[in-house]
């Protein structure tokens, strides 16, 4: 038996000699030298996109097992970053662009020209819906960019698949409509009507009438938390959990009419713009704003936060457009615009859409450097009433007083989507599976804070407190909390006697405290007097007018 | 003017027929995946909760014995065969694939004290209260299966037996530790240190010449077959019942002690336990290592089985049933999947080593999902909510109250020691670490070794 064990071992070692480092068998004929040994190098900018957090220095750790474990983890992290960076090769689509001839400027190009120059499917994405009866329209696209919801001020609400031009529902709610918003899928949407907020099915059937969300001016939806936000005319901000149907939090912002609302997609914090030029950030866990920053000196007209959660664009009555860094609250760029932009929206690739009365301007990457000229412009007949970029498509939807127009913006949409996040081409079964999985992963509203990665970090404050508690428990005697005198028999534990004993202990502790403090004071005074004694003070000389001619001695 | 507007061909993104799988496109850009940390946390929470939901470790009960099962032995070559001996002298051979007994042998009159299997898997040897050592064949279908191949009648009673992992040598323990050769009927070598009886013996699977025994004078004695005298001895406060060697680390062993603890030692440093494993509520009767060398299982007199990690002091899992009585013997199967326990209840129970694991062949997606969930659980294991859920186990009332009492006793003793230290001259009450507290002494201390070398 022992012989057989040794035999096996020899065989495997013999095999290994005929393999090269990758495990592929190598023939005995001499192979030519590989001039490009190893794997292809990856540029640092690509890798930096996939890195998360700072590198942890492993050298200072004394515990060998922990050091080895952390080193191993670091190796795995690097491999993961490299793999993610290499995967970019496999992305199939490229973003859109406009290449102009010499002398031609992109902002002079009309939509009709773009539609003619692009292919036929793209040309069909530029369309106009003339609906002049029912007032200025609010616009919303679903998260996967497939379905479109428009709501006219005079009550006309319509939902349709805009790519296939297939209508889903169309109705008139017989009331003023302030805002419309899709919920998590294309099955439900919320309409902020004159008195209350209603939730409808995609067939137009009224599912819920939310009387607590009254006089809502603006709606928004937090997709990963399943929270519907409603900003009130009376200054209330309400969060409704649509999976449970309960209002999570009602906040009285005390800031007047809330008309300017925007969501930070990276950390689910709500930004409100006020008439005094301040931008406040709210979370459902606190009744006071998380951050209050003064962005303009005049009333804010609109705000927008980009997809990565890094930049904030604000526009106010003072005809300026400012870009702020959301994390440091510093103003990055400012430029003048013809009027305060009534609507601002960021696209997935960082394009900023702004509407100034009846002109819609789109800026190309305004966060990196302030634009001298817009990328594209479009003139409407009536002022724009809402803007929304379509996710994963190069399309900007504009709602105006006489209907809806869909504009082509080459390069605005993210070309490669992730099927597990949002899939524009999903089937009914895929949508159902996605919905169940999303509900299982629903994040609780009490995790909303300015830093979304907080939960993965070490809670240093609690750790320190625990460490202190442990030291106290194991090493040192705790400070005696309350003195409970022992019960004595034979009538010696009458209440008067117990109180006397307690008083004795209390006075003794007080005396100890005073004694120690007195000692400390004495020690301090002694130290001070020592210091004074060391300092040599010069005797004061009588002042005379001739002092200025005397030589100054050090 | 050249313009490119994003346009996708739906045929590239949708499946062709109903029989195909759906097309999946990935983009790992973090901008498309917000809230990574909170979503991972929620997934970890769900995974922990589901682990508790699916934690159903009991698989089967092997019935057949008519008295409590007091010793078990794994077949060294086959995964599905075990031998068990009971207190009425019967030895049964079980096949775990069908969970049936394939052979019942009336081996001894009196207790079967120990069974061990030869490393080539052809024979097994049993030792009993009738002063005999019997060699049997493991093949249940041969003609010789009902009678022992060899019977050796001895003068003294033997209480334990173990086989060398490579050579045809086995050792028995009783009054002394005797080393036998397969062919001889007299012990080849005899080791004796002190006058007390030796309870159990165990050979090292890696460093095959070493073995360790537990003696009734609360000591654990180390032997090397190449020397004529035992090497070293460590004396604990209470007696150890069984010792198991770590199959991956040649120099580590774990002793199951009467004081409700298990002690892991490094043979190079016997004066300081490498780890003290506490969680049992009564004497620990048996211990066996997993083939990975990272965990071990222990059975105790308190009717429960606990699984401990090697480098931790608290158990990660506890198995108990109302029907299972005092657990005399536990074994961890060699494919790292199952745990066998033999108890006073006259049957052997088959458990899963990881209670929430799905048995059988997993599809690659299932395996990927299980791996992902396990990694997430490890990542967020220290979060209070997740820790609370993953640690939660129901434990019988007797064990719960005993452990509660032990905790109170421990806390009050610690408090008293602190008070004593606070009111004594600094330095008179030293801090003794937990790992050294339970050890009385060792025979050969580190300083002595240098002296010995100089003598030689």
UniProtKB/TrEMBL annotation, chain B:
Q: Which domain of life is it from?
A: Eukaryota
Annotated InterPro entries: Sof1, WD40/YVTN_repeat-like_dom_sf, WD40_repeat_dom_sf, WD40_rpt, WD_repeat_DCAF13/WDSOF1
Specify the Sof1-like protein domain's residue ranges: 353-439
In terms of PROSITE patterns, this protein maps to: WD_REPEATS_2, WD_REPEATS_REGION
| Subcellular location, record wording | Nucleus, Nucleolus
Q: Where are the WD repeats?
A: 62-104, 105-136, 277-318, 320-361
Task: Provide this UniProt record's keywords sorted from A to Z.
Answer: Nucleus, Repeat, Ribonucleoprotein, WD repeat
User: What SMART domains does the annotation carry?
Assistant: WD40
Q: Does the keyword Nucleus apply?
A: yes
**What family, per the record?**
Belongs to the WD repeat DCAF13/WDSOF1 family.
This protein is called Sof1-like protein domain-containing protein
Organism for this UniProt entry:
Clavelina lepadiformis
């Amino acid at each position: 038996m022992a012989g057989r064990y040794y035999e096996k071992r020899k065989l495997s070692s013999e095999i290994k000699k005929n393999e090269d480092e990758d495990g592929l068998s190598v023939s005995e004929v001499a192979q030519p030298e590989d001039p490009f040994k190893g794997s292809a190098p990856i540029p640092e900018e690509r890798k930096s996109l996939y890195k998360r957090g700072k590198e942890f220095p492993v050298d200072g750790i004394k515990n060998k097992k922990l050091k080895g474990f952390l080193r191993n983890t670091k190796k795995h992290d690097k491999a993961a970053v490299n793999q993610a960076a290499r995967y970019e090769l496999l992305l199939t689509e490229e973003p859109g662009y406009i290449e102009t001839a010499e002398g031609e400027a992109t902002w002079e190009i009309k939509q009709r020209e773009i539609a003619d120059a692009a292919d036929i499917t793209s040309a069909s994405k530029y369309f106009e819906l003339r609906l002049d009866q029912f007032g200025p329209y609010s616009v919303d696209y679903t998260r996967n960019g497939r379905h479109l919801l428009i709501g006219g001020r005079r009550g006309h609400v319509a939902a349709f698949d805009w790519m296939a031009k297939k209508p889903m529902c169309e109705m008139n709610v017989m009331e003023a409509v302030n805002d419309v918003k899709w919920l998590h899928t294309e099955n439900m949407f919320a309409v902020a009507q004159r008195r209350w907020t209603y939730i409808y099915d995609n067939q137009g059937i009224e599912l819920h009438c939310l009387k607590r969300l009254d006089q809502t001016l603006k709606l928004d939806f937090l997709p990963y938390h399943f929270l519907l936000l409603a900003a009130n005319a009376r200054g209330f901000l309400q969060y409704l959990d649509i999976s449970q149907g309960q209002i999570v939090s009602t906040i009285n912002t005390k800031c007047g009419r809330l008309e300017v609302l925007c969501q930070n997609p990276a950390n689910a914090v709500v930004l409100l713009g006020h008439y005094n030029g301040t931008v406040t950030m709210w979370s459902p866990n606190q009744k006071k704003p998380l951050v209050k920053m003064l962005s303009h000196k005049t009333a804010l007209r609109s705000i927008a936060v980009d997809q990565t959660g890094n930049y904030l664009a604000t526009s106010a009555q003072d005809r300026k457009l400012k870009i702020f860094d959301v994390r440091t609250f510093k103003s990055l760029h400012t430029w003048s615009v013809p009027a305060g932009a009534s609507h601002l929206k960021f696209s997935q690739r960082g394009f900023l859409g702004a509407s100034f009365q009846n002109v819609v301007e789109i800026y190309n990457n305004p966060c990196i450097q302030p634009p001298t000229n817009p990328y594209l412009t479009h003139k409407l007949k009536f002022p724009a009433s809402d803007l929304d970029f379509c996710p994963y498509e190069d399309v900007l939807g504009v709602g105006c007083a006489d209907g809806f127009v869909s504009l082509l913006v080459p390069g605005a949409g993210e070309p490669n989507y992730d099927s597990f996040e949002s899939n524009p081409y999903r089937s009914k079964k895929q949508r159902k599976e996605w919905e169940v999985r999303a509900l299982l992963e629903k994040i609780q509203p009490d995790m909303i804070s300015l830093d979304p990665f907080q939960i993965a970090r070490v809670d240093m404050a609690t750790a320190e407190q625990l460490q202190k508690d442990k030291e106290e428990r194991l090493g040192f005697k705790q400070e005696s909390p309350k003195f409970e005198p022992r019960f004595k028999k034979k009538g010696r534990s009458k209440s008067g006697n117990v109180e006397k004993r307690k008083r004795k202990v209390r006075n003794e502790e007080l005396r100890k405290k005073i004694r120690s403090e007195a000692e400390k004071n004495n020690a301090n005074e002694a130290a001070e007097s020592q210091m004074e004694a060391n300092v040599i003070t010069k005797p004061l000389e009588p002042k005379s007018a001739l002092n200025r001619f005397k030589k100054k001695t050090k | 003017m050249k313009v490119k507007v994003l346009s996708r061909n739906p045929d590239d993104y949708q499946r062709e027929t109903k029989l195909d799988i759906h097309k999946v496109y990935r983009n790992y850009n973090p901008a498309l995946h917000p809230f990574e940390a909170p979503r991972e946390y929620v997934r970890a929470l769900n995974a922990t909760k589901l682990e508790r939901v699916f934690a159903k470790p009991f698989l089967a009960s092997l019935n057949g014995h008519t008295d409590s099962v007091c010793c078990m032995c794994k077949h060294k070559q086959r995964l599905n065969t075990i031998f068990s001996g009971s207190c009425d002298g019967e030895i049964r051979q079980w096949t775990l694939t069908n969970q049936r007994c394939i052979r019942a042998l009336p081996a001894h009159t009196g207790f079967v004290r120990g069974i061990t299997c030869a490393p080539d898997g052809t024979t097994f040897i049993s030792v009993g209260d009738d002063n005999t050592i019997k060699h049997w064949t493991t093949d249940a279908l041969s003609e010789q299966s009902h009678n022992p191949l060899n019977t050796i009648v001895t003068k003294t009673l033997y209480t334990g037996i173990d086989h060398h992992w490579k050579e045809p040598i086995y050792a028995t323990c009783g009054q002394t530790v005797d080393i036998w050769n397969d062919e001889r009927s007299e012990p080849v070598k005899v080791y004796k240190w002190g006058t007390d009886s030796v309870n159990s013996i165990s050979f090292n699977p890696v460093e095959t010449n070493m073995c360790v025994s537990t003696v009734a004078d609360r000591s654990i004695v180390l032997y090397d077959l190449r020397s004529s005298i035992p090497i070293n001895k460590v004396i604990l406060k209470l007696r150890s019942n069984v010792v198991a060697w770590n199959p991956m680390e040649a120099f580590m062993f774990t002793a199951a002690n009467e004081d409700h603890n298990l002690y892991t030692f490094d043979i190079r440093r016997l004066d300081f336990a490498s780890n003290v494993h506490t969680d049992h509520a009564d004497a620990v009767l048996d211990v066996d290592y997993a083939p990975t060398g990272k965990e071990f299982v222990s059975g105790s007199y308190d009717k429960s089985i606990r699984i401990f990690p090697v480098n931790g002091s608290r158990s990660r899992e506890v198995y108990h049933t109302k029907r299972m009585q005092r657990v005399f013997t536990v074994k961890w199967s060699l494919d790292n999947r199952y745990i066998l326990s033999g108890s006073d209840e006259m049957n052997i129970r088959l458990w899963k080593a990881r209670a929430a694991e799905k048995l059988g062949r997993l599809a690659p997606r299932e395996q990927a999902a299980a791996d992902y969930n396990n990694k997430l659980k490890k990542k967020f294991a220290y979060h209070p909510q997740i820790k609370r859920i993953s640690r939660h186990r129901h434990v019988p009332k007797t064990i719960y109250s005993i452990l509660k009492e032990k905790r109170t006793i421990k806390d009050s003793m610690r408090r008293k020691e602190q008070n004593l230290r606070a009111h004594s001259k600094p330095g008179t009450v030293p801090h003794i670490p937990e790992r050294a507290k339970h050890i009385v002494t060792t025979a050969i201390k580190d300083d002595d070794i240098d002296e010995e070398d100089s003598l030689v």
